[in-house]
């Protein structure tokens, strides 16, 4: 019975719930960033480089051929275009995350730098009354 209670205490701790929420939001954010990269940013870049799709860039080390048994043997290639695509995706994702963190940090700084309200002003009558009170206490 102690093991079940211990597991329950662990599973409903704030840190575990926070982590679960972070993973879910992170997965959703990953989809948004992937769409940003693939659907918005990469098409103009592809257009700038002449409509080249980076993933199609390869170096053929050995051409495809048909062996004597009639079986097709695939070509051996180095797919450097896929690497370029992933490197560009990573750079864009890293930059997007950096910008989001920068905005959040700026919002935190503004919140922290918010001016503290001035201390309440005491009018002269209140000060005089306090002095009279203090004098009466001394007697």
Can you walk through the features of this model?
The protein is mostly helical and 139 residues long. The chain has a single domain (2-114), classed as Non-ribosomal Peptide Synthetase Peptidyl Carrier Protein, Chain A, CATH 1.10.1200. 67% of the residues lie in helices and 8% in strands. The chain is built from four helices and four strands; from the N terminus they run ααββββαα. Helix 2 crosses helix 3 (80-112). It is elongated.
Main sheet record? 2 strands, antiparallel
Output the CATH class name. Mainly Alpha
Radius of gyration: 33 Å
- Report the portion of residues in β strands: 5-15%
Distance between the termini: 70 Å
Helix-strand topology string: HHEEEEHH
- Spell out the CATH superfamily: Large-conductance mechanosensitive channel, MscL, domain 1
What gross morphology would you assign?
elongated
DSSP helix fraction: 55-70%
The average pLDDT score comes to 82
Q: How many separate domains make up the residues?
A: 1
Biggest β-sheet: strands ordered side by side in the sheet: 1-4
The CATH topology annotation reads as Non-ribosomal Peptide Synthetase Peptidyl Carrier Protein, Chain A
